[in-house]
Specification:
A hairpin with a 5-residue loop joins strand 4 and strand 5. Helix 7 crosses helix 10, helix 10 crosses helix 11 and helix 12 packs across helix 13. This protein folds into three domains: about 130 residues, no CATH class; about 90 residues, no CATH class; about 40 residues, no CATH class. About 0% of the residues have low confidence. It has a five-stranded mixed sheet. A two-stranded antiparallel sheet has the order 6-7. It is an alpha/beta fold and about 325 residues long. The chain is elongated. Helices cover about 55% and strands about 10% of the residues. The protein is built from 13 helices and seven strands.
Length: about 325
């Protein structure tokens, strides 16, 4: 069952299961509704439903109405309305907002959908309502991402980031895009809400972990530029997450490698997976035979392109070098 109430320029639909879980948790004393006496208030609100309901279906509808009323009365609905109203592009772009319960870890978020993308879907775990400040941060992040996709100036373009590359490389590129875009989002939020300045250290730690193979100075430069600077365009971010040379050019130009030099973390010319180093010297007779064999399988490959150690080992085994 969905129950609709007005939101500025849109209609908010709230999943009944979410209202029940949130209200029951709040009445238990863990959230915004957990003030003394609210468990009794919930019991008193539900008691007439038992007396009036003619059957199970009637009773279920009555319970849904009670939970929905308390969800609003205890301020949960107002919190969602407040957060959505902070994003005028979102408010102007959607006709309906569907607020549902995230069923599993990782399914929470906000996205556009429906006819002509005029519906905003928001999935939230019920437990998040018990931490209003965490909910504010999560939804502000999600809605600012949505607002970016709606802004023609950002130039968002859905689809693969690395068309034709192995799935693992596409996943890595998406993880990096999520990080760079997220740093920009958090920086803009921190300028508007100073309490979020504390997120900068968290983002720096994430950047260091994501770019371990690149110069140590890169993560700090990257976070500083995205945190304090103007919002980059989507295409800039896409190129930076797919090409380390572009990343260094944008944030650490003095560390750019010489033309033709291999950059740690770049993809192997054979398997396309990012690697820490490649084999580029083919001095012994056995190594030269391997290079000839590789060239036979990859006609456009040249020895100076190099190959990762795993690919070289694979060819060595095929040639019997390791037997």
């Amino acid at each position: 069952m969905q129950i609709a109430v007005p939101v500025p320029r849109a209609v908010l639909h709230v999943e009944s299961r979410l209202t029940r879980l949130v209200v029951e948790a709040g009445a238990a004393g863990d959230g915004a509704g957990g003030a003394e006496g609210l468990p009794k208030a919930l019991a008193l609100a539900l008691e007439p439903v038992y007396r009036r309901a003619a059957g199970a279906a009637d009773r279920a509808d009555g319970f849904d109405a009670v939970y929905r009323h308390l969800f609003s009365e205890w301020g949960y609905e107002g919190l969602i309305e407040e957060l959505v109203s902070e994003h005028p592009l979102v408010v102007a772009a959607v006709d309906e907002i569907w607020l549902g319960c995230a069923e599993r870890q990782g399914s929470a978020g906000a996205d556009l959908g429906g006819p002509a993308l005029r519906q905003l879907g928001i999935c939230l775990p019920a437990a998040l309502f018990l931490e209003p400040e965490a909910l504010r941060l999560f939804l502000r992040r999600e809605l600012l991402h949505v607002e970016d996709t709606l802004d023609p100036g950002f130039g968002y373009r859905p689809g693969p980031l690395r068309a034709g590359r192995p799935g693992a490389m596409e996943n890595l590129a998406r993880d990096r895009l999520r990080l760079l875009w997220g740093i920009s989002v958090d920086g803009r939020l921190a300028r508007r809400f100073p309490v979020y300045e504390k997120l900068r250290a968290e983002r720096l730690a994430q950047a260091r972990g994501m770019y371990r193979s690149l110069p140590d100075a890169l993560p700090e430069r990257l976070v500083a530029a995205l945190w304090l600077g103007s919002r980059p365009r989507f295409e800039e971010l896409r190129l930076q997450v797919c090409d380390h040379e572009r990343l260094l050019e944008a944030y650490l130009p003095e560390a750019r490698p010489e033309a033709g030099a291999f950059l740690p973390g770049s993809p192997c010319a054979l398997c396309s997976f990012p690697v820490a180093r490649v084999v580029v010297e083919w001095e012994s007779e056995a190594e030269r035979r391997l290079a000839l064999r590789i060239g036979g399988d990859f006609p456009t490959w040249r020895p100076e392109f190099g190959a990762c150690e795993r690919c070289v080992e694979g060819y060595a085994v095929r040639e019997g070098t390791w037997l």
